[in-house]
Amino acid sequence: MTAAGAALVVAAVAGCGSNAQPIQVNLAASEVLAQAAQKTAEVTSYTVDAVVNVTHPQEGNGKVQGRMLYQSKPQLAVDLTLDTLNMGSQSLPGGMRAVLQGDTVYVQVEALKTLLGTTKPWIKFSLSEMGGGSNEVNQYLTQIQQFDLGNMTKLVTASQDVKSVGSESVNSEDTTHYSGTFPVDVAVQQLPADKQEQAKANLAELKDVKFDIWVAADGLPRKLALNGSKEGATLDATLFFKGFNEAVTIQTPPADQVGELPQRTTN
Prior knowledge:
With about 270 residues, this protein is an alpha+beta fold. Helix content is about 25%, strand content about 40%. Strands 1, 2, 3, 4, 5, 6, 7, 8, 9, 10, 11, 12 and 13 form a 13-stranded mixed sheet that branches. A hairpin with a 4-residue loop joins strand 10 and strand 11. It is globular and about 55 Å long. The two termini are about 30 Å apart.
């Protein structure tokens, strides 16, 4: 599992005070998860903070840590910052940042800048013009596309053993804590068809994943923890969600700091 792959795992498997009662305590835990998946699909904006630790018998230890702002209206916009992105001997000094506005992606990462020979701190490209694109750019682009709250929540609905384990406070907000496991092969089938292949590829080394999810009175998750292992490879991820449907400001970088993605020539 590469550093980019570790980030995709985070993405594929998915943050104030109140005296509200635990969410719908009369509902079965599995029904609460189903309703949470439906509600997250309707969310138009949110913020997520995530940290993921992975181990691999051949590639060593890795860590991904960062945050993302997301909005779907009036147009799709994402601001993703990864402060730490490394796996074994591979790392990205200084991390990376990516901004998506509609059809346009802006990427700021020193390693990619050097690789492509650009002088501007940001690189800009259009999704519609990417086509196959370069593997390097697609790695960062896929991280943005896979960091999806709705899909993260859909994965846990595949659980057949989820149960409520009590009420807990998450960031000073009352929540109900649910715990269970889900089989990876079944869970990825809950995702849209165009997301399943990528999810399978990045969860292939895990058989069953244990999860804990904390759901507030509004039916939306505030925290999600995932743990999985297989043949020496392990995953330990924690994500915090907040700011649902709140106004979000996602700005593109100044034009004088943006360079175009170099055109590739074919022989």
